[in-house]
Write a structure and sequence with these properties.
Elements: E1 7-11, H1 15-27, E2 31-35, H2 38-48, E3 50-56, H3 64-71, E4 82-89, H4 94-103, E5 107-110, H5 115-161, H6 171-188, E6 192-199, H7 202-209, H8 211-226, E7 234-239, E8 242-248, H9 252-268, E9 270-272, E10 277-279, E11 282-288, H10 296-312, E12 318-321, E13 327-329, H11 330-339
Parallel strand pairs: 1-2, 1-3, 3-4, 4-5, 11-12
Antiparallel strand pairs: 6-8, 6-11, 7-8, 9-10, 12-13
Length: 352
């Protein structure tokens, strides 16, 4: 099939003139589609999508000017019609020539014309179509490269913010989220809690079953926790076997329920591998933002102090620190809450 860039659509109602022009263009190496009126020529242009057009101005049904206007509105098989249109006219009046060019014609020739001049103008038109197609191709490639770069950047952002093993937030991203949540909570005087937890006796799991099983335990803990949290809670791995849950718009009462749900779910879960079935527990410490906290690091320090209390108290338990710095184990806290509002115990380590 001839190259569409070198296809010429002729629109000429005079049969003898049409046949003569077609023969000369074919002799010059072009593939020619000869049409007796503008309407048929328009249909061929739309079918082909990219072509050169030689159209007589004066034709029945659809004249050359109407053909030009209609052709410029077309969208071909490739979505764009690359069309170079030369109008043939017996009138040399400037206003008509201007009207034709304004309508969208690329060039014009007045009759009678020299065939060699027409061929030269067609070669120029073919070059322009070629450049247009090349430009679109390059724009497409650029768009493709931009899309790939966007996808790659998103992937890099995920890698930079995600813990490679568990798929949850890494320490850096978690602290960034904590800083944002802290600023919002301070600005709107909203509650904010931090829950830190640690897998109990994790080193013996690694030593007894190997790092592959230990990694599986870490992954399972992250998966179980993720299923218990709200969409706006942030779960992250701080390092090793230590995790953190950031709970925006949540007071100590809500954090207590979150922490206890995590403790129970992990205690009930068994990590099964081909080599072993491993059961672990976690110790948790939670703290709520209060006036005594001057930074999110101070809030995190209170949660860490509560985690230490949970470890020291026998592990597999939750300790809570309210906004005033009072700490208590979950069981005693729950009983106290049932009897009276607030917590009734000692003060946690001083905030920074």
């Amino acid at each position: 099939m001839p190259n569409q860039q070198h296809t010429i659509v002729i629109a000429e109602d005079d049969a003898s003139a049409r046949a003569l022009l077609a023969r000369r263009l074919e002799q010059a190496g072009y593939h020619v589609i000869a049409c007796e009126n503008g309407r048929r020529a328009l249909a061929e242009i739309q079918r082909i999508g990219s072509c050169l057009v030689v159209a007589d101005w004066m034709m029945p049904e659809m004249d050359g000017l109407e053909l030009v206007r209609a052709a410029r509105r077309l969208s071909g098989p490739e979505g764009i019609c690359f069309v170079y249109i030369i109008l043939l006219t017996a009138h040399a009046a400037k206003d008509q020539i201007v009207a034709g060019l304004d309508a969208g014609a690329d060039d014009y020739l007045t009759k009678p014309y020299h065939t060699q001049e027409l061929l030269a103008r067609l070669r120029g038109g073919a070059r322009i179509i070629g450049l247009q197609r090349e430009l679109i191709a390059r724009q497409y490639e650029l768009h493709k490269v931009n899309a790939e770069m966007t996808s790659l950047n998103r992937r890099l952002e995920r890698l930079a913010s995600t813990d490679e093993l568990t798929g949850i937030a890494n320490r850096r991203h978690l602290l960034e989220q904590f800083a944002r949540a802290w600023s919002l909570a301070q600005r709107h005087d909203a509650p904010l809690t931090c829950v830190l937890f640690d897998i109990d006796h994790f080193k013996p799991v690694d030593d007894t079953h190997g790092h592959a099983v230990g990694d599986r335990v870490l992954t399972d803990v992250a998966t179980v926790c993720r299923g218990l949290l709200r969409q706006h809670d942030v779960l992250g791995r701080i390092g090793g076997e230590e995790f953190c849950v950031l709970c925006p718009a949540t007071d100590i009462h809500g954090a207590a329920q979150v922490a206890e749900r995590i403790r129970r779910a992990i205690a009930a879960h068994v990590t099964r591998t081909a080599a072993a079935a491993v059961h672990v527990t976690v110790s948790l410490g939670a703290a709520a933002r209060g006036a005594r906290h001057h930074s999110f690091e101070a809030l995190m320090a209170d949660a860490d102090a509560m985690l230490y209390c949970a470890k020291r108290g026998g592990r597999n338990q939750v300790w809570l620190c309210d906004a005033e710095g009072r700490g208590q184990a979950f069981g005693a806290w729950a009983s106290a809450v049932a009897d009276a509002p607030g917590l009734k115990s000692g003060v946690a380590a001083g905030a920074n």
